[in-house]
Write a structure and sequence with these properties.
Layout: E1 11-12, H1 18-29, H2 43-60, H3 66-91, H4 99-110, H5 118-130, H6 144-150, H7 154-162, H8 164-173, H9 182-203, H10 205-219, H11 228-231, E2 242-243, H12 257-262, H13 271-277, H14 279-282, E3 287-288, H15 291-300, E4 310-311
Parallel strand pairs: 1-4, 2-3
Helix pairs in contact: 2-3, 2-10, 3-4, 3-5, 3-10, 4-9, 9-10
Length: 320
């Protein structure tokens, strides 16, 4: 008989976030892991390269029909998602030592991605780390209404993935406690919207369609499901899972997600070294090597819903 389907509710886990404990254990056993912590200024060159690539493609398609920009946007999802993950590096201050330079680099990475969100992402993502699994505070967790709306239906899960950029915006607005600096938000919006206007006026609608679809397909399908294996799992006992497939070569080792939550101050290029340094802590964890299999598993497995996450919301009256 197939295993029973779990109820449509978050899995209630007790106890603290397991990542800090694993970090301490690894550092106690492998103090040399501290040498991996730091900045990677060469990430800035990756940002410049991908930004230049996206604008170069936009220039090349400027005289083509709009549908050409839409179709090419499927391939453009790879550099667009790469820029999103480089913004993630900036949010952890992993490019430069200066917080201001990291913020400006994140805004630069955001420039071709049409929607201004680099500064807001930084605030929300750091809250995700500090409030992991707190359904009322973790911006990465879906709202209960969102999870109930999607339910177990493969069709609704597919549509949710397709429209993930919309749900990301709605999810962010409900967590008013995660506020970003207004001046930085204004700068981010001014830069990105000015770039959008310039692309439309100078290069035309096809160029803007390419950039917009690159962003939309990166955050939705086909690549927006890249982060599904990170926190959604059918069984209790593990908050975060990693992906070790070849897409890490294109997407700045984003798949090393358990390692990242253990050591958020280690830049993307050193995460594989961290795993090789401490294999005993990672080899036994649930992980994925096939992106398409993870995507299909989420869509078609009725046990995997948006509720397939640990809820560590503190009990009422408990200290934060």
């Amino acid at each position: 008989m197939p295993p029973p389907e779990p109820p449509l509710a978050f899995r209630r886990d007790v106890g603290p976030d397991p990542h800090p404990a694993r970090t301490r254990q690894i550092l106690d056993r492998h103090p040399e892991a501290r040498a991996l912590i730091g900045n990677n200024p060469t990430t800035f060159l990756c940002v410049v390269g991908l930004v230049g690539f996206q604008f170069a493609v936009a220039i090349l398609v400027r005289n083509q029909p709009v549908w050409v920009g839409v179709v090419l946007g499927v391939a453009g999802a790879v550099p667009a998602l790469g820029l999103y993950f480089l913004m993630h590096e900036c949010s952890h201050q992993l490019v430069f030592r200066s917080r201001r330079l990291n913020r400006l680099t994140g805004i630069l990475a955001n420039a071709p991605n049409v929607v201004p969100y680099a500064v807001l992402f930084t605030t929300h993502h750091l809250k995700h780390h500090s409030a992991l699994g707190d359904a009322g505070a973790d911006p990465d967790m879906p709202a209960p209404w969102e999870a109930r709306l999607v339910g177990r239906s493969a069709v609704r899960k597919f549509l949710w993935l397709l429209l993930n950029p919309v749900f990301q915006v709605l999810r962010g607005t409900r967590l008013g406690a995660t506020r970003s600096p207004r001046a930085a938000l204004a700068l981010n919006a001014a830069v990105v919207l000015a770039v959008d206007a310039a692309v439309l006026l100078v290069l035309g609608p096809t160029a803007l369609a390419y950039l917009f679809c690159s962003y939309f397909f990166a955050m939705g399908l086909p690549l927006g499901a890249f982060w599904l294996p990170e926190h959604y799992g059918p069984e209790p006992g593990q908050e975060t899972a990693s992906y070790y497939g070849w897409l890490n070569l294109l997407l700045f080792n984003r798949g090393y997600h358990a390692e990242h939550h253990d050591f958020p101050s280690v830049p993307w290029n050193r995460l594989p070294r961290l795993r090789r340094l401490a294999p005993g802590w990672y080899d036994g964890l649930r992980s994925h090597r096939n992106y398409l299999a993870a995507l299909a598993g989420f869509v078609f497995d009725p046990r995997l819903t948006l509720f397939a996450r640990a809820d560590r919301t503190p009990a009422e009256g408990a200290p934060p």
